[in-house]
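User: Hi! I have a protein structure encoded as tokens and I'd like to know what sequence might fold into it. I'm fairly new to this, so please keep things simple.
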């Protein structure tokens, strides 16, 4: 597999998941068959995992509550942080789980419908896990940019420009 071509295809799809194999082939000067085969291989090997839309829920009129939860844990003998991370990412509310450097070990991003749902997730699902020593929850107040997409729609400055 041509690593350079693979990287270009992945970069294009990462930027715009709606690109067709036809368009990618034209953009890269390759045949449609070559691109379709490469994309199939990337999907089969788990390199290309998902095609994703980034939704501005606020503009859609739907309220979502996002929270980032820092988790301090005691690593498990022989498993480190991996076993606990696997348990945490199985919960449907969880969008992402990261192993972190610094004061906390894991960072968990969740998205739910209400503030109360965040509290229930932390108190009933996350905090009771055996290795969890402590948590700190941060609520997302406003999203300005997500997955490289600017969500903030700054109002146009309507003032007249005054020049001397």
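Assistant: Happy to help. Inverse folding works backwards from shape to sequence: for each of the 164 positions I chose a residue that suits the local structure. Here it is:
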């Amino acid at each position: 597999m041509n690593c350079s071509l693979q990287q270009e295809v992945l970069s294009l799809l990462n930027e715009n998941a709606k690109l067709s194999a036809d368009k990618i082939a034209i953009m890269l000067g390759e045949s449609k068959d070559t691109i379709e085969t490469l994309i199939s291989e990337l999907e089969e090997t788990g390199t290309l995992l998902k095609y994703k839309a980034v939704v501005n829920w606020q503009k859609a009129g739907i309220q979502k509550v996002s929270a980032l939860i820092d988790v301090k844990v005691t690593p498990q003998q022989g498993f480190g942080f991996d076993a606990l991370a696997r348990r945490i990412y199985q919960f449907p509310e969880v969008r992402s789980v990261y192993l972190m450097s610094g004061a906390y070990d894991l960072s968990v991003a969740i998205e739910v419908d209400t503030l109360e749902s965040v509290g229930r997730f932390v108190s009933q699902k996350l905090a009771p896990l055996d290795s969890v020593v402590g948590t700190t929850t941060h609520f997302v107040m406003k999203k300005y940019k997500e997955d490289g997409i600017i969500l903030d729609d700054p109002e146009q400055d309507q003032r007249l420009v005054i020049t001397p």
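A useful reference point when you look it over: The chain is about 35% helix and 20% strand. Feel free to ask if any position seems puzzling.
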